[in-house]
């Protein structure tokens, strides 16, 4: 093989590796659940309300975590969380988008408190 061919092949490999990106989770909920089984999520928090096939993925609409909590200001509130969960053909969570959230007992997001607890 000539030096030119080796250099071209190496440059092409570098170019391809630069195109491959690994997206980091954009929030603590995705950090906890992306890559995990949707079955484990739904078993822990309740089944989805509906699902929509979307090619090789399925989009689940989920709502759960209904409870009454005491807020930091001393008041109480009825809270729940709603999300759209994208699941691949292997039933693995690929994305979670929160669609309805309330103030939590400890901070701004009840969904984050609920879905990231151990």
From TrEMBL:
Residues 1-23 form the signal peptide. This is Lipoprotein. PROSITE patterns: PROKAR_LIPOPROTEIN (PS51257). Keywords: Signal. The keyword Signal applies.
């Amino acid at each position: 093989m000539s030096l030119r061919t080796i250099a071209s092949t190496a440059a092409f490999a570098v170019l391809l590796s630069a195109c491959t990106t690994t997206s980091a989770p954009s929030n603590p909920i995705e950090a906890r659940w992306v890559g995990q089984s949707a079955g484990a999520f739904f078993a822990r928090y309740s089944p989805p309300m509906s699902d929509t096939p979307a090619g090789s993925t399925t989009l689940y609409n989920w709502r759960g975590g209904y409870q009454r909590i005491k807020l930091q200001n001393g008041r109480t509130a009825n809270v729940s969380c709603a999300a759209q969960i994208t699941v691949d053909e292997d039933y693995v969570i690929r994305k979670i988008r929160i669609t309805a959230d309330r103030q939590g007992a400890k901070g701004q997001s009840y969904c984050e408190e609920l879905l990231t607890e151990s």
